[in-house]
Amino acid sequence: MSGILAGISDARLYSACVVVVLYLTTCAYFLWPRRRPAIVVSGNNHATLIAFASQTGFAADLANRTAQSLQAAGAPVMLASLQNIDERILREAKSALFVVSTTGEGDAPDPAAGFVRNVLDSSVPLKELSYGVLALGDREYDNYCAFGHRLDQWLRHQGATALFDVIEVDNGDEGALRHWQHQLSVLSNSPDLPDWEAPRYERWRLTAREHVNPGSAGDACFHIELRPQADASASWEAGDIAEIDPRNSTWDTRLESLPHREYSIASLPTDGAIHLLVRQMRRPDGEPGLGSGWLTAGAKIGEDIAVRVRSNPNFHAPETNVPLILIGNGTGIAGLRALIKMRIAGGRHRNWLIFGERNVAHDRFYGEELEQWRARGQLERIDLMFSRDQPERRYVQHRVRECADELRRWIAEGAAIYVCGSLQGMAPAVDAALSEALGADTLEELAIAGRYRRDVY
Ligand SMILES: Cc1cc2nc3c(=O)[nH]c(=O)nc-3n(C[C@H](O)[C@H](O)[C@H](O)COP(=O)(O)OP(=O)(O)OC[C@H]3O[C@@H](n4cnc5c(N)ncnc54)[C@H](O)[C@@H]3O)c2cc1C
Fewest 10 Å CB contacts: which of 24, 32, 86, 457? Predict the structure, then answer.
């Protein structure tokens, strides 16, 4: 086919042919021999490419569901096995989602061998491409999710922009798959996309709620406490996520099946309660956000909330007593607070917090507690950045740049860096500042070694 097309200059004709070929091969994949349900595949330049690499069919199924979710949200999609993807398709795509398994010794699934040989070993300029990776694997094996990470690294090196960090799925973990669905709802701007599988919620009671930033220039934030009821298993680790069912919401009766919402847990089981720090969001029409509206205003104190704890191993504290640099903004302090508490409980005091909000007068989340930890020597260093307290805006990334020498010293001493907070703005700016301070190669090595981790949303 490429020979026939070589003489045709019209790139659009080529694209159309490619789409037809993808459509036919994808239909063939789903219809034969497994007789999977075929989906309507619509292809054009604005379509999100959904590419899968499947050994047993699981990645193909998830890619199919991904396509269906985006289509339900009105987003055009182009679904294809990685074996049918070439450089040109990647160059023409504006956004792509990759659903890929890892097999053997960290290898790509067999059908993707040609893609690995022909594409991953070459260099393709992909500055226009935004992408996300769902990496399927099994934590029991070495090289967990290795192919997903290899693909992610290759895409970054080609200049493509990650929409979010690689989502690892251990053995089909439903919580991780719901996190992927959260990203699909953000990508398609459809916050009401239903969950593929509703979480198995447990009952927790709303026992405390405090407005912690009255007078703030930002939206209201609430410290929230949820205590386990009879059936709830109150075990989690710092870094884990609470999935909340906004089903009881009196704010929104339009939907039968409401999607879960995710919040970083700010406490430890020894606190006896899940603490959350929730910012009250509003939809463009002024309606309260589904989850944040329910937690911060809709639910009454003493009311039961359906909660499921999602393990988030990628953001668990380092296992050894290495120094820890914690960087974040806004409600990102929630996940960092749990990590600091855990470090202190383990007698690990080499902790350095770099945290940003708007005004010191209104936005010192957990300010007294942080100060106490510093006074007791449990938090070695705190750098607070209040962006609006001086004429020029100053953010955490500025502090990272100013502290480059000290950061390099901590890294030389084996420190890990954990970042929690805004995916828009903060996370990429901090990433760029760290890359400047430490060098892009070092930062990549730290990420591979699990010493640079992020929980950003
Ligand atoms: C891993 C993870 C951890 C999170 N931890 C926290 C946390 O600790 N505290 C917290 O307050 N939130 C946290 N969030 C965000 C939270 O899950 C919800 O997205 C947020 O509360 C808005 O949901 P909603 O149902 O209230 O609003 P929706 O009904 O979804 O919509 C509200 C409006 O806000 C916009 N919107 C939705 N999400 C965001 C966002 N993240 N940033 C900017 N605009 C948005 C939508 O476009 C919409 O217009 C976390 C998200 C993830 C994925």
Answer: 32
Residues 285 and 334 in one domain: no
Domain boundary among 126, 158, 187: 187
Helices 333-345/367-375 angle, 10° precision: 30
Q: Assess if residue 142 is contained within a domain.
A: yes
If pLDDT is split at 50, 70 and 90, which confidence band does 44 have? low
Split at pLDDT 50, 70, 90, the class of 450 is very high
Q: Looking at the predicted structure, is the pLDDT value of residue 7 above 50?
A: no
| Residue-wise burial string across 146-171, b where 16 or more C-beta atoms lie within 10 A, e elsewhere | bbbbbbbebbbebebebbbbbbbbbe
Residues 382 and 295 occupy one common structural domain: no
Among 187, 212, 246, give the residue marking a domain's end.
187
Residues with CB under 6 A from ligand 1: 182, 191, 241, 261-264, 277-279, 281, 283-284, 289-293, 331, 334, 455, 457
Best probe residue, ligand 1, of 258, 263, 283, 363 (max atoms within 8 Å of C-beta): 263
The C-alpha atoms of residue 379 and residue 34 are separated, in whole angstroms, by 56
Ligand 1 closest atom vs CA 262:
17
Determine the average pLDDT of the residues in 250-269.
79
Question: Does 26 fall in a domain?
Answer: yes
